[in-house]
Design goal:
heterodimer; A: alpha/beta; Rossmann fold; 2 domains; seven-stranded mixed β-sheet; five-stranded mixed β-sheet; 15 helices; globular; B: alpha/beta; Pyruvate-ferredoxin Oxidoreductase, domain 3; 8 helices
Amino acid sequence: MIEQKVVTPEYLFFEAERKKQLMTGSEAVREAIRKANVDMAISYPITPQSESMHLVGDIFAEGYVKEYFRGENEFAVMSSVAGAAMAGVRVFTATGGPGTMRAFEVFPTWAGARLPIVCAFMTRGVNSPLTIQPDTIEMAYLLETGMLMLHAETAQDLHDMILKAFIVAEKTDVHVPVGVFADGFFVTHTKETLEIPEPNIKLPSYNPYSSPVPPMDMENVPVRQMRDPFVMKSNFISYAAHASWQQEVDAAAERSRKYLETYLGGLLETENEDADVLLVTSGTAVCQSREAMAIARAQGLSVGLVKLKSIRPFPTEEIRALATRARAIIVPEFNRVGWLAKEIKSVIDEPRKVVGAPRVYGGMTMPPEIILDEIRRVTR
Amino acid sequence: MSEKISIRMSGLGGQGAVTAAHILGAAAYRDSLQVTVNPFFGAEKRLAPAESYVRISREPIFERGEVLYPNIIMIFHPHVITMGKCYTMPFFDGLQEGGTILINSATPLPLTKEDRHNLTERKAKIYYVPATEVAMQVSGTELSTNIAMLGGLYGIRPLTSMKALEESMVERFGGGKFVASATTAALDDAVKEKFGKVSQMIEKNMEVIRKAGESLTEHSLS
């Protein structure tokens, strides 16, 4: 293994000197994992994710990751990382689009077993017709799996969020998986400027005793409930277990808010939040909205921006407060179903303020001009 | 450079449109400009449409994805126009007024009357460069076509210093650091095999760039 100095998470995130570099989102994943003190990484290729885990393989060869292999398929990979996490090591993997769908059964299992797995999702459209290009539809399906969901706008976010995800996931009162989402191609394959700490430092290793459930204990939950499910004995016991356990998983996710406040500087961030019209979105729809906002403001329109960094937990109270002041809330999204617009409508007092547009899907680019069209429509 | 320059490079898989964009972007970064580079392609296979986009500015760049309103369009192969092998049809769609089109062809392509009309209306400037011929002639391989296209571009408008361009080529082809898919890596090996040393390859590439710049012709639309 390569010698690296162990530093506190706070030092790595906020104090370590950062150097400017031009790199792709996939390379940003490599640089994050280089400093994440990961014990085990398991890969399975799917565009646009393949490059990320390939690069993690490269740094395994260099001695930055203790164990790395390629699984048989996404279901096997997600099951293997579950086993590794249960055994008490820090694990990382990544997938996207159809790969996410193939592995799906395992995601709620992670949360139910309180496994602090970090998985990067490089979002891609889901068939049919076939596409390999960006679309955030898979996030709609993952909303209620119990995992925390962070959405990166840029490669810089992706790098920082992956590192922070491990630390939040491993807090005893949280201890659930974290999905870090980045839009395929728009982040993974785009070269941009990042500021990142040198790779001679790394996070402290995972402490398996931080787990709120006994690791690999055959007689206690969570392993007990897998090897010897309650439902095989008594429906009554099973119902009772679910009633408490499902609520506890939700509560664990809720308890992550304070850590996300500390490490991400809030579940959302705003620019011109007192504006009449707010663009509220996440991922690379934020980049496109920044351009649209700049053009609109240059034309004298009162437009602000709300970037959601955390989707689970959802910044409910923050959005409710912002929505009270705004006249209209425009939600640009890279998917057909408008899951984010639905989420926002469900938490604010006047859902009619929400404009669920523009929606771009199947891999197409979202020109800032179509966001401007919506701004003009509501300010007319 | 006061405004943002947005470039769309349309080519066929294997021609190096993605690599050309990376080299140009890295050169702009070396000259302390703001830059984003992003490739777009379907399944990676040779001769399938492949595009890449470069945005260069002195101000921060947020927008990403396809360049829908380019200042410069670089066409790496006539088939992009004649067989519609591009993500944007017609090939010049979205070209900003006074924009530039650079086409890899020794002779002017037979543009339709409609194309001609629309391009004239946009006050477009069309340049031709025999990029593949220059690549064959100077470095003995058509795999340098992308470098010749950059030569044509710099002949029209040098977007960075030549020093930065050369350094970014050294970075791209010189070290083991570059991340490429298996197909791109195979093409890299093929082109490197042509030359004994990387320094030789860079020297040839710089010559390709000079020669392509000299072989540039502006074509009148009228």
